[in-house]
Amino acid sequence: MPITTAAPHDDIATADASEFIDDVCRPALDGKAVGFEDAVRLMELDATDVPHLLSWANRIRARYHGSRIHLCSIVNAKSGGCAEDCKFCSQSVLYQTGVDVYSFLGRDEALAAAQRAGGARAQALGIVAAWRGLKEGRLLDQVCERISDVSGDGSVRADASLGIIEDVAVAERLRDAGLSVYNHNLESSRSFYPNVCTTHTYDDRVQTIRNMQAAGVRVCSGGIMGMGETRRQRVELAFELRGLDVDVVPINFLMTFDGTPFEDAAELTPMECLQAIAVYRVVMPTKEIMVAGGRERNLRDLHPMIFMAGASAMLIGHYLTSSSRSADDDLRMLEDLGLTWDWSPH
Ligand code: SF4
């Protein structure tokens, strides 16, 4: 008489989970919008079920973005001395972090950074400044000159991340100077945001995105994972970004800095990082999902799997206040994965 053995509970759970993943991801592959609770369930899957989710995220990336990965680089154009209190940030005056402090960069430095970025196969250089935001005045004139220097040089596209923009007229000045894409992260979900920053509001951030869009500037906006938010709150952020119809979604993984309130935050596991990228890909199939800060530190040996998880873009070169690995290593990794990069500044 044949002996039948009941399947272990974990196997049953995995079979159910696979069916659920197929049911949610198949429509996403065809460009249909995934519902909030389904996305939360994907974000809460056990690690053993995540590889199946990754296989779908990889298919969705391949269908909408092909194998050409967009690369961006940034230059810290004004470091330290910021009066805001973002708790992850080493550049706030409120925290003793020992970060370099210097004022806005000059023309030669901007051009050197643009040419370095182009040499590293980046499409764009993000000019990033540590301050609350920009208003009409001498500083805006200076910023517009630097944007125009970079965009006129032609090595890379001129992008920027300059904080809160309260006035569409300021956004139009930046656009007219040659700005292509403006980065302004929401950082986290609306419900978690009070734990992240108290000196400006979530709505200040949302309004900045709307003001840039009103001026016809494309927007790059995402957040940081690993600040203590729940998995559901990661999905809340994804839906906020989908609702705002931003063009590029950078996902950062918290890099802790001594002296900041988040210095002791626990790192996410590499599988949790991949899962977050994959869920964002499923929620926003056609958008550029960019993996930015903290990828090597948090993903460790699983770092090349970010593309299988659905990433279509990557930040290369140096991050704001910390070094990343060399651009050559990243380009070799893409070649090893059978991927390539899109190098035309557009
Ligand atoms: S506004 Fe920008 S530079 Fe200032 S503390 Fe916040 S993240 Fe850091």
SSE blueprint and pairings:
Blueprint: H1 9-29, H2 36-43, H3 50-65, E1 68-78, H4 107-119, E2 124-129, E3 133-134, H5 138-153, E4 157-161, E5 164-165, H6 168-177, E6 181-183, H7 202-214, E7 218-220, E8 223-225, H8 231-244, E9 248-253, H9 270-283, E10 288-291, H10 295-299, E11 313-315, H11 327-336, E12 340-342
Parallel strand pairs: 1-2, 1-11, 1-12, 2-4, 3-5, 6-7, 8-9, 9-10, 10-11
Helix pairs in contact: 1-3, 2-8, 3-9, 4-5, 5-6, 8-9
The structure holds iron/sulfur cluster.
Strand portion, in percent? 5-15%
Class per helix and strand makeup: alpha/beta
The CATH architecture assignment turns out to be Alpha-Beta Barrel
CATH superfamily: Aldolase class I
By oligomeric state, this entry counts as single chain
How helical, in percent, are the residues?
40-55%
**Tally of individual domains:** 1
Walkthrough of the structure:
The chain has helices at 9-29, 36-43, 50-65, 107-119, 138-153, 168-177, 202-214, 231-244, 270-283, 295-299, 327-336, and strands at 68-78, 124-129, 133-134, 157-161, 164-165, 181-183, 218-220, 223-225, 248-253, 288-291, 313-315, 340-342. The strands form 3 sheets. Strands 1, 2, 4, 8, 9, 10, 11 and 12 form an 8-stranded parallel β-sheet that branches. Strands 3-5 form a two-stranded parallel ribbon. Strands 6-7 form a two-stranded parallel ribbon. It is α/β, with parallel strands linked by helices and 346 residues long. The chain contains 11 helices and 12 strands. The longest helix has 21 residues, at 9-29. The model is unreliable at 1-11 (pLDDT under 50). The chain has a single domain, classed as TIM Barrel. Iron/sulfur cluster is lined by residues 82, 84, 86, 89, 91-92, 130, 132, 163.
